[in-house]
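Work through what follows:
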Amino acid sequence: MKPGVISPSPARQAANSSRLTSKTTGHIVRQITTTRKNVNMKTQEEANKAFVLKAFDTLFNKRGYVAAENFWSPKYIQHSAHIGPGREGLFNLIKSLPRELRYENALIVAEGNYVLLHGRFTGHAMPRAWIAADIVRMEGGVLAEHWDVLQDEATKEESKSGLPMFGASFPESTGKTAAAATLTVEQAREIVAPLYDALNQPATKDVEALLARAAHPDYKSYHTNEEFLTREQLAGIFKNMGKTIPDLRWTIKDIQVNGDQVIVRGEANGTPAGEFWGAKPTGKGFKTMAIDLFTVKDGKLASCYHIENWMTALQQMNE
């Protein structure tokens, strides 16, 4: 011991050693706890991914509607623009599609209660496969909420990046566009459905998204033989109609197909709450007929010539 230096007593040394050991032990315990939490989280995320893949396979590929109820919450929240609300809206859509419908998954990622999937839908009676980005939220061990983005699968000739949208290869080219092929009535109904959905209570819908789903960006809606509205302008018209006629309903009564052309006979009804075609609201509604002649290109609407019998509608409102 050096002169002038006072060494800690044995009791003090023991106390200091105990405090150091306690701190070290506490640090180690915290590290172990954090590691366990991370491991548990990763384990749960892996379980969520496996659960969602099994859910998609059960509903989309196996059509097990009763079994699928064990995967989807009865309070399921649906944000998709082209699927009806709730679990029933999703199940009813799948029931309406051909038995050949298939879902393939290319990538799945999980973070916390959310699962993101990159996949492809085929066999849905549309000219192109759908490339889908689906986001689902898990709650209580089941699928509780859903968002999605869908795109038609591009061919090699159409891909500006030169890379496929799904997997390592492009879809086989048929040597002709979808518009050159004869559409079936079922295909035609699926193509026009989002547009007519946008016409049913438009004030409550994402009209732009629905029209984008149905029609090309350069879509032309002709109200005379020469004059037309763009897709964006048509969205504005739909939204204004929704404000004027809050209960507007537009029903497809008949669909005829001729090559790449689709003829729809529809029925519009509602009760204007504001001025409509220059007429003040009377509290009376209307029911009138509409004829739409669409041209389809690459699985989407390229143009439409349409006629509505608004004169009869105005007469009904003033009877």
